[in-house]
Amino acid sequence: MEAGQFCFITDEYFAIHDKDCKLMRNKEAVDGKEYGRPCFYAFADKKNPLILWCVPISSQVDKYMSIYNRKIGKQRERGIRTPKCNTIRFGKVMGVKKAFLIQNMFPVTQKYISEIYINRLTQKAVRIPKNTESDIMRHANEVLRLVKSGNESLVFSDIIKTYNELCGVNLNENN
């Protein structure tokens, strides 16, 4: 799998690395049919090429826009002149607006990728526009930097612990 594509994660990953159920899990099969959701935007770790960071996307744009606006509003109430929200971003996937949930991101290795999200019409891997990709990358890397410096509450799961388990290297060393 190439960085910048969308993927689906195996149930095995969640069983091993998300025992406390803080990540967005795979949807259950209905009438024996797998739905392959959620889908994750994956990008390469800057230091370890064996690690991909996965950011789930959601079609519940109104729900996450409300959360986004609430976070911005709270910052304005505190007197912040240029409020921002790094943890939820928006962009189009296959022409449809989606919420990118950086707050739910987590690291994986290729071992845990079950498949790539393929556009049925083109039979090619789904990609996002460059401006959306730049926005997601900039904010996800900022959140990662902040988490590494002690702001673990920006994300839902213990991504540092998972990173260390996956590659045996301490993410906090040599920030």
Describe the structure.
- With 175 residues, this protein is an alpha+beta fold.
- It has one domain (6-167): Thiol Ester Dehydrase, Chain A (Roll).
- It contains four helices and nine strands; from the N terminus they run βαββαββββββαα.
- A hairpin with a 2-residue loop joins strand 4 and strand 5.
- The radius of gyration is 16 Å and the shape is globular.
Structural topology:
Elements: E1 6-9, H1 11-17, E2 40-44, E3 52-58, H2 61-77, E4 88-93, E5 96-101, E6 106-108, E7 113-116, E8 118-119, E9 124-125, H3 130-148, H4 159-167
Antiparallel strand pairs: 1-2, 1-7, 2-3, 3-5, 3-6, 4-5, 8-9
CATH topology: Thiol Ester Dehydrase, Chain A
Q: Major sheet: size, sense and barrel closure?
A: 7 strands, antiparallel
Given the helix and strand composition, which structural class is it? alpha+beta
Percent helix among the residues?
25-40%
Rg, alpha carbons = 16 Å
Task: Please give the CATH architecture.
Answer: Roll
- Uncertain parts: none
CATH class placement: Alpha Beta
Q: Helical element count?
A: 4
How widely separated are the two ends? 26 Å
Q: H/E order of the elements?
A: EHEEHEEEEEEHH
Count structural domains.
1
Residue-averaged pLDDT: 88
**C-alpha geometry:** globular
Portion in strands: 15-25%
